[in-house]
């Protein structure tokens, strides 16, 4: 009978020890919900890079910067041989000038000298026609008296009809000159002017694109081509790492998702600036779950589903480099 209390006591010791061990395993997972220990996340610095290239093809004339150079926004980085594009601009300007001149000529109508000449032709035709009519009337009177032969009578009447037509043609030509050119011709000339202007604008744009300028400030990280290289549109010549924005990509599991709402302030720690964290805010929480990336170092390696965060660093400096591992601490709200 004395063995039973000892056996019960042994079982109580084993159960207590097991409970202690189980509590020890769960304590890390429950710590954030039971105390004010900051939520610790791990991630990497994410700095945007821009691949820069020319929009037009040509031969590289100059590359003005090398890898590692600090670049300011708008600074010229490289240029192509602009000679062929200058010729295209000159040709487009000449074509535009010719089109504008032709449109102005049509809009102004015929020259006054041409109209005066047509009016004189009308007056001359009127005189000739009047004389032909007079001769024709005489012929009609004389033919009844058998004074002139039938042939002469017919010639005079034919001459009258001919001068009538010549007078009509002269008057029509005068009216045509006075009215000016057709509206359709003027509209066509104006459309050709617009087309020539568009060609000039395109040529000027191509000329402007023979220079490559920095879209933002940053650091040049790649110089892919050298002077003399022949490039096609869109080929990367230089790669620029932007100064801003500087983000941190981190991951949080579903259990702590409520602690990382957008706008939450965080501290970002790096090995190169220990004890001096960067300030940041959570700017984006992915709506999709994914497995923990292998490039992210976690305290406990696990293959659980997590959500990607984007943290905007408030005042980044040159110590933050692309891909640098960082530790993010989010304080639990009161």
Protein model, in words:
By secondary structure, this protein is of the alpha+beta class. Among the domains are: 50-81 and 209-239, Beta Barrel (OB fold (Dihydrolipoamide Acetyltransferase, E2P)), CATH 2.40.50; 88-205. 44% of the residues lie in helices and 26% in strands. It contains five helices and twelve strands. It has helices spanning 3-34, 83-108, 112-144, 150-179, 183-208, and strands at residues 39-52, 58-63, 70-71, 76-80, 211-213, 218-223, 230-231, 238-253, 265-269, 278-291, 305-313, 325-330. It has a six-stranded antiparallel β-barrel. A four-stranded antiparallel sheet has the order 5-4-2-7, with no helix packed on it. β9 and β10 form a beta hairpin. α2 (83-108) packs antiparallel against α5 and α3 packs antiparallel against α4. The longest helix has 33 residues, at 112-144. The protein is rod-shaped.
Ends: how far apart?
56 Å
Percent of residues in beta strands: 25-35%
Number of strands: 12
Low-pLDDT stretches are: 20-34
**Strand-and-helix sequence, N→C?**
HEEEEHHHHEEEEEEEE
DSSP helix count? 5
- pLDDT averaged over residues: 84
Helix content: 40-55%
Helix/strand structural class: alpha+beta
Overall 3D shape: rod-shaped
Radius of gyration: 47 Å
| Main sheet: strand order | 1-8-11-10-9-12
Largest sheet: 6 strands, antiparallel, barrel
